[in-house]
Amino acid sequence: MGRLFHPDSPLMKFLSAVGELILLNVLWLVCCVPIITIGPSCTAMCYVVRKIAAKEAPNVPKAFFQALKENFRCSLTVFLILLIPLLLAAGYLLMGASGGLDHIPVVKYLSWVAVGIIGMVCSYVYPLMAHFDNTPGNTLKNAFLLPFANPFVALVATVLNLLPVLTMLINEDLFIRLSFFWVGLGCALTALINELLLAPVFRRFAPEEPKTADE
Questions:
Q1: Which of 4, 27, 66, 122 has fewest C-beta within 10 Å?
Q2: Average pLDDT along the chain, 215 residues, taken 10 residues at a time
Q3: How many angstroms separate the Cα of 92 from the Cα of each of 22, 104, 106, 107, 177?
Q4: CB atoms within 10 A of CB 108
Q5: pTM for this structure?
């Protein structure tokens, strides 16, 4: 029994990792409240999960706020550039789900395609900023091109990121039941899974040198 609760036991390591993700999830949610800081907060969360995935045992609050500060300008610029297409896509998605576009099916289906493309770009853009120093323009270009080079990974990452929205559209009761999971842990866990999916892609295709662990 004593070994079970030893700091180096698998159980304690698992509980420690869960605790880090919960703390990260809370920090991300709080820093997203001003709305305008959603982009920088996403980049900071991706930076921390990158360290967690690399087993670097980060100090979660310190690493999060350091990344938030260092990537704020670039992340904010990218977020503002993506904001208009995101709002348009969300509007068409809601209209399509409510039947408002049933009389113009071409627009309805094109809106779903647009949502998928924007979702893939967003799935890549913030992890890219957490891994590499680059300009907003080059980051957006890479985030647009990489999903087409790796469609399966891009599809999985996008579905994971859109899962709360898809759940809400399909079953509102289920979404409400799962809301505590997303608020407590789900977003950070999704970011960690995406990091495990996307990191090999970045190593294969991205020519930039990754940020060092102590940046």
A1: 4
A2: 59 82 95 93 96 88 95 94 80 64 65 80 93 92 90 92 84 87 91 94 67 49
A3: 33, 12, 12, 9, 26
A4: 18
A5: 0.83
